[in-house]
Design goal:
There is one protein chain. The chain is built from 4 helices and 21 strands. Strands 17-21-20-19-18 form a 5-stranded mixed sheet, with no helix packed on it. The chain is globular, with a radius of gyration of 22 Å. The mean pLDDT is 95. Bound molecules: beta-D-galactopyranose. Beta-D-galactopyranose binds next to strand 5 and strand 13.
């Protein structure tokens, strides 16, 4: 082959290498069929070279679950193939997930020991608003599903938080729900901090709404959820098969009113980004860190910087994806809710950046590519 031909071949093969495509936050995100991805409040699982994006299917007129949890697959995080419904609602009125219930914030993790894919999500029973406050778990042999519902319920009935001392237990025992009928008073906040609602829900199990699941380096998994009427986050250990809770849990920011937890670990530090509680309206994100998942957790200022950082750029956190194969590459994922047309809700995906002292921050970018992480 001539030198010129070799050069041409080299240039051609370089051109064939796929260029990283831009991620546009807030825009429509067409799937392989040209339809906006319908996977809200979701998370991403990376398994054997493929990314799987799971999220709530939302229809045009209601946020209730009329379809179920969707799955999309991709090998580059920008081009998504609709894999269909991973966990379908049921037509059986006696099922916990009958069509018309509420299924929110699904997260899927892979269990190395059992070889199963495990999905946790927030479940509200049909026709009961947000009163049930249940966690639900489903399982599948393959990543895209179909998933089978294993069960649902409140969390850790009869169990006290592991970080509650004997003295604190006594202080909680002396609280009476009837003395705190008026909410939002300083005394009521103090009682919440002391575990008024832990005591109220001890027998039936703790409430579980906005949630995520985190698998640590040692394979242990944790369910992190808004409990105690969304006033306090709980971090609860899952069993080895990830299908139940072990009974061990701690409270994060008691009475701090945190929702939408998203977590990642970098250099031995756990970082958690959450939102406040303003329903579908965006608010200012919060951030916490700890050197052990069991705490103590320290609160930091809002991780978002720049214009609209006081409302998380219009979004609410849902997940933080560690991008495999790249150093210090984490993607902050959030939802821009559109309650007037739920299916039109948008996604915010932004790279997490780090200050010189190692503190994470998130800055708006109209568009960026995964190449952003190269050379970091
Ligand atoms: C949000 C929560 C969403 C959904 C919504 C319902 O605060 O993060 O997942 O539950 O409230 O109003």
């Amino acid at each position: 082959m001539s030198w010129a031909a070799a050069c041409l071949l080299f240039v051609m093969s370089a051109c064939q290498q796929e260029e990283a495509k831009p991620i546009y936050s807030g825009a429509l995100w067409p799937d392989n069929t040209g339809v906006h991805v319908n996977a809200h409040g979701g998370g991403v699982l990376y398994h054997e070279g493929t990314y799987y994006w799971f999220g709530e299917n939302k229809c045009d007129t209601t946020s209730n679950a009329m379809v179920g949890v969707m799955c999309y697959s991709s090998d580059n995080l920008t081009d998504w193939t609709n894999e269909g419904v991973a966990l379908s609602v049921s037509d059986d009125e006696s099922s916990d997930i009958v069509r018309g219930c509420i299924m929110e914030r699904p997260k899927v993790v892979y269990n190395e020991k059992t070889g199963k894919f495990v999905m946790w999500f927030h479940l509200e029973l049909k026709g009961k608003g947000y009163a049930a406050a249940r966690a639900a778990v489903a399982v599948s042999d393959s990543p895209a599903g179909p998933y089978r519902l294993v069960g649902s319920g409140r969390v850790n009935p009869g169990k006290l938080p592991a970080d509650m001392t004997a003295e604190a237990r006594q202080a909680m025992d002396s609280l009476n729900l009837a003395d705190f009928e008026k909410w939002w008073t300083p005394e009521w906040y103090e009682a919440i901090r002391k575990g008024l609602f832990i005591k109220r829900d001890l027998e039936g199990g703790q409430m579980s709404r906005d949630m995520t699941v985190f698998v640590d380096d040692d394979g242990k998994a944790y369910h992190i959820y808004s409990s105690e009427d969304n006033l306090t986050l709980h971090i609860a250990e899952l069993s080895d098969d990830y299908l139940t809770h072990t009974g061990k849990y701690v409270r994060l920011a008691p009475a701090g009113h945190n929702e939408a937890p998203a977590i990642f670990k970098k250099d031995g530090t756990y970082w958690m980004i959450t939102s406040g509680c303003t329903g579908w309206d965006p608010n200012e994100a919060r951030m916490f860190s700890a050197s052990s998942i069991w705490g103590p957790w320290t609160q930091h200022p809002n991780p978002c910087v720049g214009p609209k950082s006081e409302i998380t750029f219009g979004g609410q956190s849902t997940y933080i994806l560690k991008v495999p194969g790249k150093d210090n590459a984490f993607i902050f994922m959030a939802d821009v809710w559109r309650p007037e047309k739920p299916s039109d809700a948008r996604y915010i995906w932004l790279p997490i950046q780090f200050k010189e002292d190692g503190t994470p921050y998130v800055e708006w970018m109209d568009q960026w590519t995964l190449d952003f992480f190269n050379g970091k």
